[in-house]
Prior knowledge:
By secondary structure, chain A is α/β, with parallel strands linked by helices. In chain A, 42% of the residues lie in helices and 19% in strands. Chain A has two domains: 2-71, no CATH class; 82-272, Vaccinia Virus protein VP39 (Rossmann fold, 3-Layer(aba) Sandwich), CATH 3.40.50.150.
Amino acid sequence: xxxxxxxxxxxxxxxxxxxxxxxxxxxxxxxxxxxxxxxxxxxxxxxxxxxxxxxxxxxxxxxxxxxxxxxxxxxxxxxxxxxxxxxxxxxxxxxxxxxxxxxxxxxxxxxxxxxxxxxxxxxxxxxxxxxxxxxxxxxxxxxxxxxxxxxxxxxxxxxxxxxxxxxxxxxxxxxxxxxxxxxxxxxxxxxxxxxxxxxxxxxxxxxxxxxxxxxxxxxxxxxxxxxxxxxxxxxxxxxxxxxxxxxxxxxxxxxxxxxxxxxxxxxxxxxxxx
Amino acid sequence: xxxxxxxxxxxxxxxxxxxxxxxxxxxxxxxxxxxxxxxxxxxxxxxxxxxxxxxxxxxxxxxxxxxxxxxxxxxxxxxxxxxxxxxxxxxxxxxxxxxxxxxxxxxxxxxxxxxxxxxxxxxxxxxxxxxxxxxxxxxxxxxxxxxxxxxxxxxxxxxxxxxxxxxxxxxxxxxxxxxxxxxxxxxxx
Lengths: 274, 189
């Protein structure tokens, strides 16, 4: 079984190299997934081993950037898990309504589909104009895509369905303009969103938020890094601020479990109580 | 029960899966030695009916796998719909929402390949009925790392494409009907 052991050593060294050379820290990401992505990239090159990739990563920035894209999870959709957005509208929005000004952080926004979904809900609920949304991701290429707000036309049918299931109040067609094979998101949805570079593994506290969304990001983290991220969220929100996680994520067993209470368990919506 | 030589059993199944699994899982005793992890292709929005139904009919505890959950004896774990299910080297599960593999999420190949890496020769993979090619690369990986692969006999499978693809891709150890797969797991053959 020396092949597996060798590969595990190589993965370790590759992640250490990336951290030292470029500052991106993937050392505490779940290994199985990251190893799959490394091997997938390896199979697309002419290189034979991960060790050979290591040299490439050190000396070829372009190659590193490709690998960085491989490491970014950019699978997302508008109103993913419609029931979550429906519950957000029903349970969280009425509380947010009571604040004079709102700050929302969407951590790990990838190509932005969920941020725009959130913006639509805020608009329909009349909260958009008093809200500042911060959408962050560690990958600038992806952030750039998010800023553009272009979605493939073949997704529209699914998104429309999601929007309706999520309790949308208008016609989804009001929120995009179709052109050729893409749809451009309603530009007025952008004005309250600041897209910026932030890495949950290495960067710090972000500001006093009323609501933080970070869905399906922490499933890629090992326990220590999960704790770091949750601590960051806790310190970045006002007392009684809301935290929304992915449907298969939880605060159970984290250091901060008792600092939050569930608002709607099934939707993974929590509130900071300490 | 006498100990099987395998520390994990991974099962991949697609079309006709509910029925096939219903003939295997309820037959296993409470002290069945190996944890079982299953990828069943389902519609992304499907609820957990299959899991609750199978749990009611089985002696083993059938549940959806949670991220970071440790694999334990007495449990049968299903990949949650719309997530890939992976096994880490420390014998815990992780989940991902990465791209579809073989047009599927969860994908059988992802579970099989990561199981083979974590458990090496202690991995038993089972490919059941299905109408696509998912699982064949994973079966190959299990064999490469010294594990054992059983495939449902395509002749008796509700959909034969997936078993045939696995047999073509990997040097599988046994091709068996469902009742014989149960006998194998119960060490009757």
